[in-house]
Amino acid sequence: MPENFTRLLRQDFADLDTAVSSWKKLAEALGKTRTGSGKRVTGPLHRAGWAGLSARHGFEAIEATETKLGTAQLDAQLITTVLDTLNNKMQAAQRKLRNAVADAEQAGHRVRSDGWVEPKPAADPEHHNDGDYEALQRQANAGLAGFRSRIEEALTEATTASYVAAELLHEIDPFDLDKRYGGASATEDAARVAEFAGIDAKDIPDGKDPKQTAKWWAALDEERQNFYLAAFPDRLGALDGLPALSRDQANRAVLDMRLNDYALREGDLGYHDRYHYRSLSALKDRLDTSDGGPAHKKLYLLGFSTEKDGRAIVAVGNPDTARHTAVQVPGTANELENFDGQIDRVEKLQRSAGDRTMGNGTDVSAIAWLGYNAPEINASVTSKDRATDGAEALRGFTHGLRAAHEGERTHLTVLAHSYGSTTAGAADAGGKGLDVDAMVVLGSPGLAVERADQLHVNPEHLWVGAAPDDLVSNLASDLTLGADPKEPGFGAQRMHVDTKKHSGYWDDDSKSLENQGRIIAGKEPKDEGAG
To answer: Do 2 and 115 meet the contact criterion of CB atoms below 8 Å apart?
Structure first.
């Protein structure tokens, strides 16, 4: 106790300040190194078409290194938070101690070098036999117990903080990267550090109000944001209203941890885990391929899940800065395993819109949104249930885009294909709608409503495209998914298409693709025969 009292009273925290700064810089450097590996190594190798056995082993080795860099980054961030919290707690305890000592001395007490507060005499000790002496003595030392308690409390707080911080630093151990290669105990470390730092996971918004989520995030300082991203990436990656960069960072961290977990258990994986392992590996390869390319072609992982058939949300270009944003909602039989095809489609949409914008595509973001459980080719396609179930998620996503967007309001278009149009219709009909400037539905079996004016989108900006031989669109009146949107009585606008069948709307050099791009860019689609 005497040593602790003297040490805390005189402690200079400059070294601890330096340690916090150094670990923070290390965390940043590790993050940049990891990102740089994708931009300068993994991405270029994927784009160059490196293939074969050597490529497979090479990519595995590179990805293992990048994952270890990610683990080290997380550890460094956790250590930064531990040291920063320790610094704050120790300095607060020192202030409390110094204030207690100053108050005790001002009251006339002597504080010994071991921290003990001595009582003071009330009067001349020679008169200690006077009848009033004891009363005067008690009065003079009325605050003695309080001063001693305050000093004890300050020392206890400092000792406890030091002990807990030491235990946490021992557990994190940044130099043993393989111990958490699967990422399981990283979450446990983060939870313990969060408790020490007074960060409650319950403070993370529930995601129901994207505007409130955006305000919560903006109110956090950079250090706190970094900690949340490191400690709770699974929670943050799914939050509508957060910046695309932050969601991408969080989701990629979770993706790496999920893949590492599968890799560690590869020999014991069941059918569904093997399916998701294969699907997520393909998704990661696609993300890696985009790294290092042009900024407006970069892919942002805005969400993913292995629930049921799997879900994924990927943006081409940053929607937070885009002047024109498109959200593509796929339909029947779409799942995580074939999501690569959806990315192909939104890349085409971005190119088509980019040919008609001032920024030549640099101001366009196109998003593949498989954020719901799309129906299989069975009886589920004749029911609105899947659309109704996914409607709230789609509304939350588009409102989240609005909340996270920087600067002038983006021109937002939702494009939906097949049963995806039923989901988009249900989403726009309910709540406050999708808050979109335009909607395009292609090969639609119904929008879950009977008339266009039952949607929030302006009917003049609701465009319906249907190929003459599109069987799904032609069956619309026979299904139970709403009135046929291509019929004049529905009240929507017809968009000219020149492609065939149900999946030709994205054919290269087609009017169908061109008109989608024109609408995304805020222009009118061309009529049949227009040049």
So the answer is: yes
Q: Which two tokens stand for residue 159?
A: 């000792």
**DSSP code string of 158-215:** HHHHHHHHHHHHHHH-TT-GGGGTTSHHHHHHHHHHHHHHT--GGGS--SS-HHHHHH
Give the largest Cα separation in the chain, rounded.
Answer: 118
**Percent helix / strand / coil, the chain, rounded to 5:** 60, 10, 35
Tokens at 524, concatenated? 């009118």
Question: Which amino acid is present at 180?
Answer: R
Q: Please check whether residue 240 is in contact with residue 251, taking contact to mean a CB–CB distance below 8 angstroms.
A: no
**The pTM is what?**
0.87
Note down pLDDT in tens along the chain; length 531 residues.
578 899 999 999 999 999 999 999 999 998 889 888 877 888 788 778 888 888 888 887 887 788 788 788 888 889 999 999 999 999 999 999 999 999 999 988 999 999 999 888 765 556 555 656 666 667 777 778 889 999 999 999 999 999 999 999 988 866 555 544 445 566 778 888 989 998 888 899 999 999 999 999 999 998 889 889 888 899 999 999 999 999 999 999 899 888 888 888 888 899 899 999 999 999 999 999 998 789 999 999 999 999 989 999 999 999 999 999 999 999 999 999 999 999 999 999 999 999 999 888 899 999 999 999 999 888 778 899 999 999 999 999 999 999 999 999 999 999 999 999 999 999 999 999 999 999 999 999 999 999 999 999 999 999 999 999 999 998 876 778 999 999 999 999 999 999 999 999 999 999 999 999 999 999 999 987 665
Q: In the β-sheet with 493-494, what is the strand arrangement from edge to edge?
A: 299-305, 311-316, 364-370, 324-329, 411-417, 438-442, 462-465, 493-494
Dihedrals φ, ψ of 493, to 5°?
-100, 140
Q: Report the run of H or E that residue 353 belongs to, with start and end.
A: helix 339-354
Report d(CA 447, CA 449) in Å as an integer.
5
In the three-class reduction of DSSP (H, G, I as helix; E, B as strand; rest coil), residue 97 is classed as: helix
